[in-house]
Amino acid sequence: MALDKNQIAQRIAQELQHNTYVNLGIGIPTLVANYIPQGIDIEFQSENGVLGMGPFPFNGEEDPDLINAGKQTITTLPGAVLFDSATSFAMIRGKHVQLTVLGAMEVSENGDIANWKIPGKMVKGMGGAMDLVASADNIIVAMMHTNRQGESKILKRCTLPITGVNCVKKIVTNLSVLEVTENGFKLLERAPGVSLEEIKTATEADLIIEGEIPEMKL
Amino acid sequence: MINKVVNNIEEALQGVESNMTFMVGGFGLSGIPENAIETLSKKDIFGLTCISNNAGVDDFGLGLLLKRKQIKKMISSYVGENAEFERQMLSGELDVDLIPQGSLAERCRAGGAGIPAFFTPAGFGTEVAEGKEVREYNGKPHILESALTADFAFVKAWKGDTAGNLIFKGTARNFNPLMAMAGKITVAEVEELVEAGELDPNQIHTPGIFVQRIFQGDKYEKRIEQRTVRTKE
Questions:
Q1: Residue B102: which of A68, A83, A93 has the nearest Cβ?
Q2: Nearest residue on chain A to B127, judged by CA atoms?
């Protein structure tokens, strides 16, 4: 069975390293915070100016002066700190934030990512995504394997305007875990019950498949 | 002490004209100068260039100026919350310069700090880099981004004093301190205005030297864009 969005987040949470600073993008990446493994300490950064972000507030305790980059109301945890946007991007550009998890419309086999614009149709802007992908040492993409039309989002080359070049390290989709290597996409894991054929059919790019491909453990 | 207090919003906005460039603080609807925006939206000034991370929503924030077509050009990083904005942009009525958020913040900071331009890795290899100088540092390509300044910067703080010193609250700080630095005339509106000496100098975020005019806003709606809560178990 293909994963749902929560399960994608759950699988990505297994990538979290102890004592690191992590920036989660809007959408599926936000859900990763719900699945932090036991014994792993993480501080979440939101680029609008908070480090040490906590869970959503209880009903009635929302503060309009305390939001995340998705404009959702949030809380802060002990040790949290607030700062301006230039300081926030100094943390990002200066590689003080170790991991970025973000969504994408397309990823290409050399690690290019497109997620900010569909010419003539949708122009929302890149927000902080271009700064994040240009600087983070580790970038994991969380997305569905195919778009609403059923077309592969894992491509030889991006067709949409790109957000960053040669930056994505790993992708977790509803069907698979892929690593971006110098030689292209390497298939690491399959979603439980999903066959190699299903993954290949849903993927426009070539896949490097070595030996038995294990199922994800959730 | 140099007194920065103006008597009312009209005095605060004295000198605003058509075709000027404004910086407007805030992230989403958090920390936007509500009083200045509302009053500007009632003035007959048009052809404005607005530098602001977002463009408000249809009926609040900069959306009010967009609705009256007062804005000719927006310089922003993300504009996804505003249907009227998207319509004007796709139809070509509105000129839009979308730039990476970190570059936007740093361009404002640089503008206020006397740094005319800087190199950043953000946007290399994308549309954003078109026409910009590329230089390699530490084996990695960077693009040249120029500083931004504005005729007026409109910012909003939690507390301020008569000397123009500002303290922000929560994530309502965002672009406000940077834009305060980059405005030729910076107009700060605050929820609470106190006498100089009442704020602890150790706790001030924006020194009053960056602020030319300060006033206490009449009211703050502080609208929440995405009210997201959890329930008590």
A1: A93
A2: A161
The answer to whether the CB atoms of B126 and A127 lie below 8 A apart is no
- Look-up of token digits 């404005």: B48
B193 lies in some domain: yes
Supply the pLDDT for residue B37. Answer: 98
Q: Looking at the whole model, is its pTM more than 0.90? A: yes
Which has more confidence, A27 or A63?
A63
Q: In 3-state terms, what secondary structure has residue B136?
A: strand
Are B79 and A125 within 8 A, CB to CB? Answer: yes
pLDDT above 70 for A4? yes
Q: What is the span of the domain harbouring residue B32?
A: 9-102+148-216
Residue matched to tokens 């020194």: B207
Average pLDDT over all residues of chain A? 96
pLDDT in tens, A11-51: 999 999 999 999 999 889 999 999 999 999 999 999 999 99
Count the domains in chain B: 1
- The answer to the question of residue B142 being in a domain is no
What confidence tens digit (pLDDT) does each residue in A122-146 have? 788 999 999 999 999 999 999 999 9
Is A85's Cβ below 8 Å from some Cβ in B?
Answer: yes
Nearest to B76 by CA among A85, A156, A51, A126: A126
A131 Cβ contact list (under 8 Å, min separation 6): A47, A89, A92, A93, B100, B101, B102, B103, B120, B122
Which residues of chain B neighbour A164 with C-beta distances below 8 Å? Answer: 124-126
Q: Is some CB atom of chain A closer than 8 A to the CB atom of B103?
A: yes
- Please give the mean pLDDT across all residues of chain B: 96
Instruction: Report the CATH number at residue B172.
Output: 3.40.1080.10
Contact, A145 vs A178, CB < 8 A? no
For A59, which of B53, B174, B231 is closest by C-beta distance?
B231
CA atoms within 13 A on the CB side of B168: 31
Q: Is A84 on the interface with B (CB under 8 A)?
A: yes
Is B227 contained in some domain?
no
> Can you read off the two tokens belonging to residue A212?
């038995």
Q: Which of A31, A126, A137, A160 should be substituted to probe chain B, the one whose Cβ sees the most B Cβ atoms within 10 Å? A: A126
pLDDT tens for each residue of B88-99: 988 899 999 999
**Does residue B121 lie in a domain region?**
no
Q: Is A189 a catalytic residue?
A: no
Residue that the structure tokens 């806003």 belong to: B217
The CATH T-level fold of domain A5-28+84-208 is Glutaconate Coenzyme A-transferase (3.40.1080)
Confidence band (pLDDT; 50, 70, 90) for A80? very high
CA-wise closest residue to A154 among A144, A163, A162, A167: A144
